[in-house]
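Archive entry: two folds, one per protein. Generate the first.
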Amino acid sequence: MTFVPADYRSSILIAAGDISAEFSAADRLAPGLLEHVNLRAPDIVRDAAGRFLDGGAEVLVTLTDGANDVAAAESLASGELTADQVIAMNRQGAELCRQAVLARRGSSAFVFGAIGPVEGLLTLGEVSEDALLAAYAAQATALVAGGVDAVLCRSFTEMKMLRLAVEAARKVVDVPIIGSMTFDSGADYTETVMGVSVPSACAELLQAGVTVIGCDRSAFPDSSASVVSLLRDSCDLPIWVEVDAGRPEFGDPLPTYPETPEQFAARLEPLAGAGACFIGGGRGATAAHIAAIAGAGDHYLRRTQRRKP
């Protein structure tokens, strides 16, 4: 089934959570890029994706955010990875999610290919624009070759970098492009750390040509519904939102996210009421969290349908 974003302008689809939250600590702490697990231990990724589907996820997101040669510069310089391996992480990551969908007879879940920011800022000249444009184009090409239904550019705080990612993808692939930023700064946590407001982000991303707009991975998940409401007021596109499983509690060796699946599920109604169309889990959101919010989604839809005249 072809993904047509406009078809979901008035719908609610549940997206998967943090695939890495389903991994062991050893897998998450392995040296190098986390995305290398797509090549190093494909069964772990495929099985994790399957658990999200079994819990009710209707969208899977690949574990490929940092799988490009700018983000992987240190691993490439040390010889730990080759450029071909970095690109292969994208294609394999997409294929593993697609395999998980196909293994479930009757599933029509979509697969979105994730592209994320890199360290350094374009506005300060810390990253080469030409190098990043080429890296994102190669990443988008590999994701589509692996079978994704859309490219999800997520977790950006610098508008210039997000626009570059979107424009790079649009030049080389013919699938919908989603643009999503992390809004967790400002007086009410509705700006990015770089000071980008929601209305400004919408204007820029509409101009860049995204077909879905969103917010994700805020350190202040309670503000997500307010951000979604501002997104809805600022544009007519379908809205994507990923919410962390609470505010991180930093421990040794990894941060933990304190929300139980039941607490996480309580986020569904305010997000849907604010206008979200795709609702998924950010950091710390396991398959159990997604199962809880999917169940709440069924209840919410039944209840709202009963209210209709």
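Generate the second and append.
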Amino acid sequence: MAQLAVSPTRDVSANVREVTDEEIAFFRENGWAKLDGLITPEFAAELLGVLQGVMGTVELEEQDGSGPARDPKAGKVLDTGWWRDYHFIARDDKIEPFYSFVFSKQMGRNAQKVAGRDVPIRYSNDLAAVKMPGPVGTANDATFAHQDMPSLPYDRVGAHIFWIALDEVTPERGMMRFYSRSHRLGPLGRIDPPEPSVVDQYRELIEAECELSPPLTLKPGDATIHHNLTIHDAPPNTTDKPRWAYIVAYVPSDIRYTGAYNYNFENLGLERGGYLEHERFPIFYP
């Protein structure tokens, strides 16, 4: 497997800590974990300032949710009806310090610990996930309960998501909730609104096997990780401030492409059953 070139321009090692063995053990048991102070508050504030400068004032027409819409003022931004997303601020637009953070040795090492296998780490996705304030509606509605894996063209588990608070995120501002141990249930199917959520479709099973996480509040720099089979959702943002979060997803390098539909993988010439050998998905660690 080829290791495609990435060229971070900044050393962020002083701003990112290593995930602990205790956090990994909690993650293995529950399918998610809270990571207090994964990045420093100062670094979170810097990321937030850059992100707000790029997209904080952009107004978009309503989109249908089928894929990212290119806005000339702010890269890839998408109003899906659940949040306002800016896709690939690191990968495509290489905006610093997002680019150096996502492709840092520190995050690569953390991703390998979470994956739990001695294989190189491949980048999968990054996006700002911003729920806007105000009455429940277009860009601040509840996020329906779902698993990530059924919507991804991957042939195995091992993908995982770091969800990082760039500002304080409270339950009222749309903080995620997790169904502990739901990663042990296997894939429960792709769910697209207005279909019933995965919890509604498997309620008896989930109530018997899982437990909803307690309400979480994240300070700037705190994060969560979750398994790509962990069921999660989020309430609407009913406050008067946006919810500023940044998501980074990594996968083991030996994951293979199934050909299932996902906008991030379309028209790339990937071979079904082959590795993700494309510049969009570089192996960057070690």
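Annotation attached to the second fold: Helices lie at 21-30, 41-55, 98-102, 105-115, 198-201, 203-209. Confidence is low (pLDDT under 50) at residues 57-75.
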